[in-house]
Write a structure and sequence with these properties.
six-stranded mixed beta sheet; alpha/beta; 17% strand; 14 strands
């Protein structure tokens, strides 16, 4: 099987340019200060976690992931630190401005798991992020991107030695080794999760950007060629990474046995896409959305189609702010009070905009991408999609947020299908 290269952009001087627009606020100059950050602090030297084996990798041990300090999110009462253990209530804002509050909380003891690998968030001056520290930026991004899924699945998220913004910008000869370091952590944590935490439950893999690329590599190595492990996987959600498929096909090249999802009830499949504004399609130098092998295109699966929502996506944003976090994913660059219109008086930390953008997968002969436009440009809620990144990035930082409400629904559908098929 041919491995798809892990395509994370090497930024070079662009990293400092991005800092000037506020997206990578601490990426140039001195390291970020962690002394007063209120991320994951406290019990950094917890005892090893109790085991619940799954049947995969029996006896596998990890000096790193047997300790709670190296998990960002870890369900269960035994966890003394869990960034996902927060109030998940959200305010839905309709196009006419009317609001409905839905109360939600993390679940413990769900029938399926979610395993999440976060994107590039570390802005310190090192090639790979250390496992020590407050991890304020990691706390911010897990809440921004996936915490709401914790209301229906047991949400696991390992810390890992991600390639930092500085590491992406540096073109030193050993750059490839930096991704191997990050991947070795993700592989180690996933094996430990299966051996000790999973307990035989089905799982969803979720990532974004660097995290998505690492999960694609993991699935190539461990899951695609293993029928038993593949049968345990409900789906993969990995926007912002390259998944090569033959032009017009849903499977082949990157994966031989894991197709792009075609219905909301399909299981063992992958959801991948890269988001661009319909009014600003990928330019010739676009970083995302391009197949990397001859005769291939990048996979694009529209979450709206899986949810039987036509072309309409429900979007969700986290309005909280973790002190000490970098600005990369803080509020995803979108506030419910931005733009000409206002949706003020929101008291919940999460806001959901049903039918917020229209989306469709588009292939222009070179780039395959999720093309989005405002569904209600005259509605009484924010009507501006931010575009603070260079055009070559598209709406990369919003890949998950613009689809989050819809993906919540799709994950529930897929899990129900898996459980029905397996008498769960």
């Amino acid at each position: 099987m041919r491995a798809t290269p892990l395509r994370i952009p090497v930024l070079g001087t662009a990293a400092c340019a991005l800092a000037t627009i506020g997206l990578l606020a601490a990426s140039c100059g001195s390291p970020a200060k962690n002394g007063k950050a209120s991320g994951l602090t406290g019990a950094l030297h917890a005892a090893p976690i109790a085991s619940a084996p799954s049947g995969f990798f029996p006896g596998f041990q990890s000096q790193v992931y047997s300790n709670q300090r190296n998990w960002l999110c870890l369900p269960g009462e035994s966890a003394t630190r869990n960034a996902c253990d927060i109030d998940l209530s959200y305010t839905s804002v309709a196009p006419d401005g009317s609001k409905v509050v839905t109360h939600a909380a993390p679940t413990f003891g769900a029938k399926f798991d979610c395993f999440y690998v976060y994107p590039t968030v570390d802005t310190t001056n090192s090639a790979n992020a250390p496992l020590s520290g407050s991890h304020a930026s990691e706390v911010q991004v897990v809440r921004t991107q996936v915490a709401s899924l914790g209301s229906q699945c047991n949400l696991y998220a390992p810390l890992y030695r991600q390639v930092t913004v500085f590491g992406l910008a540096d073109t030193a000869p050993d750059a490839a080794n930096r991704f191997q370091i990050a991947y070795s952590d993700v592989l180690d944590s996933f094996k430990y999760y299966l051996a000790h935490f999973n307990g035989g439950r089905p799982f969803v893999l979720i990532g974004h950007s660097q995290g998505s690329g690492l999960l694609v590599q993991l699935a190539q190595q461990l899951i695609d060629g293993d029928p038993a492990l593949r049968a345990r996987m409900i789906s993969m959600i990995v926007p912002g990474a390259t998944i090569n498929v033959p032009i017009g096909a849903l499977v082949g090249d990157t994966f031989k046995n894991i197709p792009g999802c075609s219905t909301g009830a399909e299981i063992g499949c992958v959801i991948g896409y890269s988001t661009f504004k319909a009014s600003d399609p990928p330019p010739p130098d676009a970083i995302f959305g391009k197949g990397t092998d001859p005769g291939t295109q990048d996979l694009c699966v529209n979450p709206a189609a899986l949810a039987d929502q036509g072309e309409s996506l429900d979007s969700e944003f986290y309005l909280g702010r973790t002190p000490g976090a970098s600005a990369i994913f803080s509020q995803s660059g979108l506030s419910p009070t931005s733009g000409r219109k206002t949706t003020a008086s929101i008291k919940t930390k999460f806001v959901r905009f049903p039918d917020y953008v229209d989306a469709k997968c588009t292939y222009d002969g070179r780039f395959s991408y999720l093309s989005v436009s405002m569904a209600h440009p005259t509605g009484l809620r924010t009507t501006v999609l931010p575009s603070s990144l260079p055009p070559s990035w598209g709406l990369h930082v919003l890949d998950l947020n613009l689809s989050e409400g819809t993906l919540d629904h799709v994950v529930g559908q897929e899990a129900a299908a898996w459980l029905a098929d397996n008498h769960g």
